[in-house]
Amino acid sequence: MPEMSAFPDVPVIQYEGPQSDNPLAFRWYNPDEIVEGKTMKDHLRFSIVYWHTFRGTGADPFGPGTADRPWDDGSESVENAQNRARVAFELFEKLQAPYYAFHDRDVAPEGATLAGSHQNFDAVADVLVEEQQRTGVKLLWGTANMFSNPRFMHGAATSCNADVFAYAAAQVKKAMEVTQRLGGENYVFWGGREGYQNLYNTDMKRELDHLAAFFHMAVDYAKEIGFTGQFLIEPKPKEPTKHQYDSDAAACLNFLRAYDLMDHFKLNLETNHATLAGHTMMHEIDYSGAQGALGSIDANTGDMLLGWDTDQFATDYYLTTQTMYYILKHGGLGSGGVNFDAKVRRESFEPIDLFHSHIGSMDAFAKGLKVAAAIRADQGIGGVIKQRYQSWDSGIGAEIESGSIGFAQLEAYMLEKGEVEANSSGRQELLENLVNRYLDRV
Ligand code: XLS
Ligand code: NI
Ligand code: NI
After folding, report:
1. Is 248 noted as a catalytic residue in this protein?
2. Model-level pTM?
3. Residue 403 CA: distances (Å) to CA of 292, 400, 413, 416
4. Is 393 a catalytic residue?
5. Which of 104, 106, 341, 363 is catalytic?
6. Which of 230, 320, 311 is closest to 273 using CA atoms?
């Protein structure tokens, strides 16, 4: 632990089991517990984000921040940023989080020039290196903030201004170098302002070509410096722009294929982005997983009554069970993790709220993992799926799947048969009851 504690009243959070009433204990997250042959720690690979947890103030469009962060002097100095980094690692340690993630501008202040920003970033990275060594906490991913500064008003790689593209390239180059220096296991591209508000003033084709060129440059540069972390694109349909280019998993994969980038990228799926796109998180995971593109998840949730990216901590067992079920189905997260891209509410302004929020969501994902594994062991879902599709396992179905027949043979087959064989029930309600059964039992 650091010499000066920012959270003197908080111990290292321990697993106490489901019966515990201690708000500073885990009830489900038991890092060394084995599920499907792997520890919970290795399945979940929890990660804490720097931006919401250490730079979020609780500001909203109607008023300034409310957060009480006694360690932060509120200045944009490098010293304050370095001190904040030390506090961050105390929180990571106390939550037993193995990973964290940042944007370049969260960890270090922007300088007056690009060179100054690079320098500030290096100075804070020195402390991040020290703290990673002290604690063993690792970097899940780095990324560059190319949306806050007014220069990015029209986007970054998709800006109408070529100078902005150049600036963004310089920023990503540096962020990749620092991510590499810190042993980051992935590098994320979330679109920020890559999209548009109005098509009248937008050359969409040209902007997409530029975005692809930007990604190819990033791939080339990774090769050049020997950065082996996984590149991830994070889909989101809207906010800040009305039409974000990387709108959902399907749009991202189409873009990557169209521009010959499929081999170099996977996806970082965020729950609240999925729902804003009109999908469920399990849909996005299953869609990506089926194409070998499941990379990592940003774990949060939206609010049923609010239509924007509220970034709340997920505590709903159905959501975490569904999420973990489809992650297990596709063989896990690989070098990715369950990254809490989530923030405490504006009214939860005390430092202790940072602990309650993470503990609760870590528990919810740990329980979701256990329920998902129990459902998989039962084979109830798998059994219904197998039965529903059994007409494809032999006979005409197998012939269609093998690609050996066409319309003429299918017509002959059906003319002879006259009518399809009876359909069987979809059993939706049975399966919903089955999920409840395991939520009760685990
Ligand atoms: C915004 C995104 C962002 C990315 C990182 O909605 O979730 O936080 O995860 O740039
Ligand atoms: Ni995110
Ligand atoms: Ni988001």
Report:
1. no
2. 0.97
3. 23, 5, 15, 21
4. no
5. 106
6. 311
